[in-house]
Amino acid sequence: MPLRPAFDAEQRAWLKEHPVLRVGLIQQAPWVLRGQNRQLTGANVELMQRLLEGMGVAPDWRLYPNLEALERAASAGEVDLAPGLQQTPAGLRIWHYSMPYLRVPHLVVGERSGNGAVDLDQLPLEQMVALRSPSQAAEYLERTHTNLRLRATSSERSALLLVLNQEVSYAVLDEASLSLLLRESRFSSLSIVGDIGLPQLLRLATRRDQALLSGIVDQTLKTLPARELEELRDTWMPLRYPQSTDFVGFWKTLALFFGLLLMLGATALYRQRQQTRLLERGLLGARGELDRHQQAAEALRLSQFSIDHSTVGILWVNWDSHLRYANRAAERMLGYAPGELVDKPLSQLEPGLHMDRWLNLWKRVREQDEGSPSFEVDCLRADGSRMPADVSLSFLRYRQAEYLVVFLSDVTERRRARAALEESEARFKGIAGNVPGLVFRLERAGPGAVVNFAYISEASQEMVGWPAQELQREERGIRSLVHPQDLSSYLNSQTLALEGESDWYWQGRILTAEQEMLWADIRTTARPLGNGRVVWDGILWDITENKLAELALADSRARLRELSAHLESVREEEKARIAREVHDELGQVLTVLKLETAMCELVCAGQMPELDERLASMKRLIAQLFQLVRDVATALRPPILDAGIASAIEWQVRRFEERTQIPCLVEVPEHLPHLPDAQAIGMFRILQEALTNVMRHAGAHSVEVRLWQEGGSLCLSVVDDGKGFDPALRKPGQSFGLVGMQERMLMLGGQLQIDSQPGEGTTLCARINLEEEIAA
């Protein structure tokens, strides 16, 4: 079927002006190959031919030996677009990347055995893993699996040869390279035994200076059916992934073989004697089976009819967010014709669901153990209108495919009912219940009229020692009970409520008839009755016991915070002492041990191969211990703190950028006064915790860290462009990092502010007051 992207007038005009596009290709199998007639073939070539046909332009193929040559050509303006690239921080300066269209995993390959799938985290030290280095997979395994013994090779073929020669236990290759090498007969004994969890997300890249072409590519790519990408993968990367039956042990296979022989012999003897009876039974069974098939077919038609006429819409979505199935209920809800929803991306129903967010949602639902997540969204119908829907997600495996099942329920009426309920609750908000306290009503007859106490409950006698009639006098009222020191706040809050015809809240001290001081809480609800008439229904609570407990709790918290600050200071001092001892004492011992090992190697080198191997192993272990000592000392107290908080922050941000590959922008002042150790360490620990949260939860593409001095305060801000969150919806027990940062700032006498909205990133700002001599 021809692709029909929905280009606007400006895009069609641009394509008409550019009938030929220069396509940059990296010549590497199976992506780009030259056939016997010198014609270009390969996965990327077929993909680009399909997309360029949809655009209505012709290709001008440009071949390059590697990515560096391609990027130089793009910088020089010799290439318009290129397929099959991965998004990198450096590449963002040259290319504009499309959404991923293909995931190429990195697979673990080894000899066939009955041990099951390989867990890299549990791999013993005597087993080595070979892979091409430098490569993305090598950097990933060195960073995430420190227990592995890696052996670098110059190519994927060399890694497989090392496995065949039993020099290493396993090799790591990407799916594209493995599909070519496994076609060779000498590698037929190898099989896939695992996945390292690092897929290559392949994208289409256009030059940064051609924004219009980027939009054209995105529009064309959206119209490409997902089944064509699956056929492209099956054509150029045909692999058979291991099934659970591939790992059956030899002993079990042998036992099954002999058991099968015995069964075949017994069955042959039995069938000779019972052939006639079996034929008769077979005929009856065939008739019964035919009846069952007819019943099953009827039940299937009935089930399909029930699903199509259900009030719940059902969608099957593939990993690439394209729809594979939609029942008639979903089509009617969204206003589409039968079959029109198939192969459409889910972002057409929810425009805010971009590919990265969809993959995160896919992963979260796939790993969900209990229940299925549900939420409420506004779906986009075919006519452009919005339909509020309750969405529930469930993960489904069907044969060899995986889907996310989306259940849609139209909640338009529920929203209307909810709005009506909220309005009803607001109307009856002033009705008081049978609760202890002083219930009263204030009334105003019209604009500018005097506000009177229309009602005060008889509980006033028991609560404050005055009868209701006494308090209802115009010169008395509740204000006559207010403590003189709190009278000003009482009158101000009452005046604001009366002038604004709004609810009235006040909390303060009152005096009873016996001059006993009580803490009181006043809460009223305003109900405008029209023509300037307003009624305030309220209640005065005796909160003395709770208030005294609150004041005692505040005092206790202040003392606990002082104790926590002291303990934090002692812990940081202990960390610094341990770091010095680990670095100095262990460093000296390891240095002597390294010298002794070197002396042994000089004396015994070449005499005993086993001894040489042991000495080499000892040298590797000593080097690992050196690195471990440095890492432990740095984790306890980074030495860079002695150079000042600005240098420490810049060092920590660069380490985070190297570890996560997330581009970071850091801005620190050149001249900053020296901070006390407690403040410097506190700001540094807050930065560490903030960056850890970005790495674990934000899903950010970039981070900005800024340190500046503002008057007598020092400010630190960490801004990311991740998925964000609602700070008001933090669940208890799931935000200890944020609580720890807030407590640390309170101990330092500072403030911590967190601004975030779902889908709009997060901004964290920490501010501490500098000491007077430092600020000056």
Automatic annotation (TrEMBL):
Which top-rank group of organisms is this from?
Bacteria
Q: Which PROSITE patterns match?
A: HIS_KIN (PS50109), PAC (PS50113), PAS (PS50112)
Transmembrane residue ranges: 249-270
For the PAS domain, which residue ranges apply? 307-344, 424-501
A Gene Ontology cellular component where this protein is annotated is: membrane
Q: Tell me which Gene3D superfamilies the record gives.
A: 1.20.5.1930, Histidine kinase-like ATPase, C-terminal domain, PAS domain, Periplasmic binding protein-like II
Going by the UniProt record, its keywords in alphabetical order are:
Kinase, Membrane, Transferase, Transmembrane, Transmembrane helix, Two-component regulatory system
* Domain PAC, residue spans: 373-423
- Please name one Pfam family that this protein belongs to: PAS_9
Concerning InterPro entries, the annotation shows: HATPase_C_sf, HATPase_dom, His_kinase_dom, PAC, PAS, PAS-assoc_C, PAS-like_dom_sf, PAS_fold_3
Molecular function via GO: phosphorelay sensor kinase activity; protein dimerization activity
Limits of the Histidine kinase domain: 577-772
- Which PANTHER family is this protein grouped with? NITRATE/NITRITE SENSOR PROTEIN NARX-RELATED, OXYGEN SENSOR HISTIDINE KINASE NREB
User: This chain belongs to which protein, by name?
Assistant: Multi-sensor signal transduction histidine kinase
